[in-house]
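Record type: monomer structure entry
Structure origin: computed from sequence
Chain ID: A
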Amino acid sequence: MKLHDLQPAVGARKSRKRVGRGLGSGQGTYAGRGKKGQHARSGGTKAPYHEGGNLPTVRKLPFVRGVGFTSRNKVYYAPVNVDDLAQEFEVGKEVNPMTLVEAGLVHSVREPVVVLGRGEIDKALTIKAHRVSETAREKIEKAGGSIELLPLD
């Protein structure tokens, strides 16, 4: 085999479409460009940015996404309020993520739990949560309960 014998594999190279070569070719008359108009002319396209007078999508994107930066490390807590705890649990019970899931106050054990201070509580509960607001802490301790903070995994 010599250099002049080298050829691409059969079907590897496709011959170009020869437009405007008569009606019988199937690409005659308008040569695949339709009739009159911008796209029938040579050089007849606008930049991708041009959208016919509309605000280009590229300029809309910052407003669609929302403004600013979104941290990948943000922790999303499952909120539980003090009044929910007062309704669901008996005096002296231990409240932890597992019991909250069983009570239907939290969807998953994997979600970190934050106890918030809406409502009133008059029961002494032992609460184990990942975070507790100041007002919730005051109300729970005032009712005779205790709080233990769990580490975030």
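Annotation 1: The mean pLDDT is 90.
Annotation 2: The chain has four helices and six strands.
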